[in-house]
Amino acid sequence: MENKDWRSPAIGVTPQEYADLVTKETPKPTLVKNLIWAFVVGGLICACAQIMINALKGLGLTAKEASNTATAIVIFFGALLTGFGVYDELVKRAGAGGIVPVSGFANSIVAPALEFKREGFVTGVGARIFTVAGPVLVFGIITSIGAGLCYFLLHR
Amino acid sequence: MFGMVLPAFIVGGCICVVGQLLMDLTKASFTPAHTLVVFVTGGGILGALGLYRPLIEWGGAGATIPLSGFGYALANGAMEAVQERGFIGIFSGGLEATAIGIATAVLFGYLVALAFNPQG
Fold it and tell me: Considering its fold, how many domains does chain A have in total?
C-alpha cells in the first residue's frame, strides 16, 4: 500500500525526530487484547471438554475415565484441525489460548511433522513429531520422577 | 450436564492468560515450546506440593486440559504409584497415568501428518 505521507527519514529529520517517528508508528501494545483472546479461547476449549466429561459420566464412565477420554478427544480435534490448517489460524489470534490446552500440544506435534513430510516417514514425520513434544516429555518425566522420589523419601 | 462448565471456562481461561503473559512479557526467543515446558514443569511441581489438586476439584477440565494438567498427572501418578508399589513406582507411575494422552497424541499426530499435506 502506498503511503502518501512517506518521505525519506534521512532528509531533514534529526535523530530525535526520527526516534519520535518510530515511537509513533510502532503498533500499540496489544497485550490486553491478546490476554482477552487467550482467556476466551482457552476457556471455551476447557468448557467444551467439561461438557464432554459430563456427557461421558452420564454414559457410566468413572470420573477419571471420563477425564482421560475427553483429553484424548481434545487431542484428536487439535491434531485434525491442524491438518486442515485451521488450528494455526486460531493460534495466530488466540496465542496461549490455543497453545496451552492439550489441543495446542497436538498442534505442536502435527505442525512440524507435516512441514517436514518430504524428508520421509521416518526421519521426517517420525522425528519431527517430537520437535516440541520431546522437550515437553523430557521435562515432564524428570519432574514426575523428582516428585515420586521426594514422596518416597518423605513418606516411606 | 452443564455443571462445572462455568468454573472450567474461568480456570482454563485464567491458566491460558498466564501463558499469554509469559509469551508477551518475554523475549521473542521464548518460543511456544518454552511456554509448554514451563507449563508441564510448573503443573508437576504444583502437583507435588498439593497445590494443583484444588484447582482440578474446582475447575475440572479447566485445570486438566491445559498442559499444566498433564504435568500434574505425571507427578501425581508417580506419587500414587509410590504409595501402592514403593520405590519402583517413582519411575513407572508418571507414564502410566499419562499413557492415554501420550499414546493418542502420537497416534493421531502421525495419522494426521500422513493424511494431510502442508498448507501453502
Answer: 1
